[in-house]
């Protein structure tokens, strides 16, 4: 069975809280989706704002190789002519060949929102679709709130679909706009509607009940041959159906032809790319592509996975561009340590006394508040230090952090640091947006002439957690630092009663891991 993928990240996804794409952002995402093999990319509403119109005009000079670009908008206004509707005129200026028109299907909306009659709503659908078809455009019709409409007035909701098809729509899409339908309701409704619709039948689900992916897959099983959604499920309120697990499930579980096997391996990369451009943190627990999706922590799980991955992995993670991860913690046992050592090119066996030594050290440090599954770079450094296979890149002689409130009420932070690097004493100072940033700046300033590759890395995230809230300001804190360069990202950790000391430990690990990774002498 062939299923068409219709992406609405750039329109419905952009309506998610906290998301604001520039035109350049939208172009980059569209090109990435095109390479993935998505069939349709909805770019926005050209009649609603200048940014979306500029996007379509820019894309007209950057033709897609695989996908069709689709403009989005509504039916004409009540009691007007389609040819005179401002929004419909904007479609023609967008230079797209495909357009999706959404219209009211639920009599509640027609009466309370449009303030018009059921018959006039049908006229709006008919006139709009036929007008766009007359202009040479391929029209898809989104039946907004279809499942609520179908439950309230089955006959009229179907009449809306038939009106769109009779006017020339090449596809109709059934929308669970409120995201409140249950999977059984979606399946039953699609099963009843499918025999009556002779064109492509799509599904568009929102996630307000946490069922958008399940509802989309159920709709496919009931007969839909187009699925709408967004990358990573971003979108208004609780988001849209997440195309990432939908694509994986269609290919690997339902044997549906939607993208090629080679493109399926790009799924993780595309997911992370869209998160990055959207300025959102990638969910580690996201099915199929998250960093935790194939991560194993418990000793029993690890032992079984090493014998046969199928014991605790429902697919081969390589198929979607992911990989198995063995987490290190006091729960993982010697197998976890041995496997992580192997990944770090350390010559250890499971029965090696050094493996047991490292495990005991991990258990001791995790009891003190460390959390190495969240800081694999720090764990690699810990192993190399324990095995005497590590030489420090610099020696700290001391540092001081000064926090000052000036007369202008502005708080400034300055770090003064003394180091010995390759036998040379360095004494530097730097300001920053807070004490940790000042320390980071001062440390880099001291090291930059000795280790130029440090200019290629930066701190991308900084988290602090109080480990014993009852102890108040005397509590231990755990600091996690996420760093990245042009090719990789890594996490480091520090624990101490003093937040500056905890941060320093994580900061030093971050920089030393970068130098170790780059094989700096």
Structure description:
The structure is a single chain. With 521 residues, the chain is of the alpha/beta class. It has a domain of 256 residues: TIM Barrel, CATH 3.20.20.70. It is built from 18 helices and 16 strands. Strands 1-2-3-4-5-6-7-8 form an 8-stranded parallel beta barrel, surrounded by 8 helices. A 3-stranded antiparallel beta sheet has the order 11-12-13, with helices on one face. A 3-stranded antiparallel beta sheet has the order 14-15-16. Helix 1 packs across helix 2, helix 8 runs parallel beside helix 9 and helix 14 crosses helix 15. The longest helix has 19 residues. The model has no long low-confidence stretch (mean pLDDT 90).
Anisotropy-based shape: elongated
Q: Can you list the strand order of the major beta sheet?
A: 1-2-3-4-5-6-7-8
Number of helices: 18
Extended strand count? 16
Q: Per CATH, which architecture of the domain at 4-259?
A: Alpha-Beta Barrel
Calculate the mean pLDDT score and round it.
90
């Amino acid at each position: 069975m062939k299923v068409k993928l219709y992406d609405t990240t750039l329109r419905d996804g952009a309506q998610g809280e906290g998301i604001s794409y520039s035109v350049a952002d939208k172009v980059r995402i569209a090109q990435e989706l095109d390479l993935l093999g998505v069939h349709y990319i909805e770019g926005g509403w050209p009649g609603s704002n200048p940014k979306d119109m500029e996007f379509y005009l820019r894309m007209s000079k950057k033709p897609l190789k695989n996908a069709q670009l689709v403009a989005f908008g509504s039916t004409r206004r009540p009691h007007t002519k389609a040819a005179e509707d401002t929004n419909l005129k904007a479609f023609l200026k967008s230079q797209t060949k495909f357009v999706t028109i959404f219209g009211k299907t639920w009599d509640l909306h027609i009466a309370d929102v449009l303030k018009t009659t059921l018959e006039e709503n049908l006229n709006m659908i008919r006139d709009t679709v036929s007008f766009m078809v007359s202009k040479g455009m391929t029209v898809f019709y989104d039946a907004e709130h279809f499942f609520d409409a179908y439950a309230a007035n089955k006959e009229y909701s179907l009449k809306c679909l038939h009106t769109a098809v009779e006017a020339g729509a090449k596809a109709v899409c059934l929308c669970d706009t409120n995201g409140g339908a249950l999977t059984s309701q979606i399946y039953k409704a699609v099963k009843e509607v499918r025999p009556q619709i002779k064109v492509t039948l799509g599904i568009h689900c929102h996630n307000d009940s946490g069922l958008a992916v399940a509802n989309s897959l159920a709709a496919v099983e009931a007969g839909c041959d187009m699925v709408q959604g967004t990358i990573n499920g971003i979108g208004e309120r609780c988001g849209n159906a997440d195309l990432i697990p939908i694509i994986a499930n269609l290919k690997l579980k339902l044997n549906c032809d939607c993208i090629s096997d080679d493109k399926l391996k790009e799924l993780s990369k595309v997911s992370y790319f869209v998160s990055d451009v959207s300025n959102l943190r990638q969910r580690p627990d996201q099915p199929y592509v998250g960093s935790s999706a194939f991560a194993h922590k418990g000793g029993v799980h690890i032992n079984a996975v090493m014998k046969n991955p199928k014991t605790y992995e429902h697919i081969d993670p390589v198929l979607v561009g992911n990989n198995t991860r063995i987490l290190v913690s006091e729960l993982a046992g010697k197998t976890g340590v041995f496997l992580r050592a192997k990944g770090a090119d350390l010559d250890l066996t499971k029965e090696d006394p050094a493996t047991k030594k490292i495990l005991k050290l991990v258990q001791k440090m995790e009891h003190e508040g460390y959390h190495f599954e969240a800081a694999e770079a720090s764990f690699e450094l810990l192993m190399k230090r324990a095995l005497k296979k590590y030489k420090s890149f610099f020696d700290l002689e001391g540092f001081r952090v000064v926090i000052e409130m000036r007369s202008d009420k502005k708080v400034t932070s300055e770090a003064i640091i003394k180091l010995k690097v390759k036998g040379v004493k360095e004494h530097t100072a730097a300001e920053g947006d807070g004490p940790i940033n000042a320390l980071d700046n001062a440390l880099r300033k001291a090291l930059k002439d000795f280790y130029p590759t440090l200019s290629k890395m930066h701190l991308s995230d900084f988290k602090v957690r109080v480990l014993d809230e009852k102890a108040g300001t005397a509590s231990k804190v755990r600091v996690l630092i996420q760093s990245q360069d042009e090719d990789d990202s890594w996490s480091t950790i520090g624990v101490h009663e003093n937040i500056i000391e905890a941060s320093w430990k994580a900061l030093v690990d971050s920089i030393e891991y970068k130098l170790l990774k780059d094989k700096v002498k």
